[in-house]
TrEMBL record:
Top EC class of this enzyme: isomerase
Record-annotated YjeF N-terminal domain positions: 1-184
UniProt-listed PROSITE patterns: YJEF_N (PS51385)
Name the record gives this protein: NAD(P)H-hydrate epimerase
NCBIfam families reported for this sequence: yjeF_nterm
Organism lineage string: Bacteria, Bacillati, Actinomycetota, Actinomycetes, Micrococcales
Annotated GO MF terms: NAD(P)HX epimerase activity
Amino acid sequence: MRRAASALARIVGERLGDGERILVIAGSGDNGGDALFAAALLAERAEVSVLRVSDRVHPEAFSAAESAGARVVDLAEARASAPGIVIDGIIGLGASADPALRGRARAAVEALLPRLRDEGTRVIAVDLPSGLHPDTGAADDVVLPAALTVTFGAVKHGLAAARGPELAGEIVLVRIGLDDQLAGVRPEGQATVSAVIEVGG
């Protein structure tokens, strides 16, 4: 997880403008942990806020983010924070339920999305845009579109199918030392991987 988070932080950092703030939205899954560990690294160079949309976020990653200076905010504060970048660590491979976004996660996306669109905030998704099905590319009625998706291990089928290309934006594949392959990308899909980053074991 820390290797994935380090790569994520590097990719976000390369796109971070001077003085831009970062909002991390963290759910209960591994991608929430990746986002929180990345928040800890990014807090060394930027103002980072964390919005939890689950009571069960990764405890070690959350502690690391807090210790590094990331500020924990509620939904009202998140709406007022005017970030330049949002890291979407809400839900990834666990998005097979229907709807994928529920409860606090759904409420947060519904509340934040209009302002993010109005302000042109760049959303960077961890593994998958929240609300996108990892296998089919189908999307909920509530989904958080990304300008960039950082996906780990392999390109998931859903990024190349149906609404995947529309919602994922640019795709960066991070190969984390497993038996990774560019899985899921078929000629009929429209996903384009803009970069492949190798992270050793």
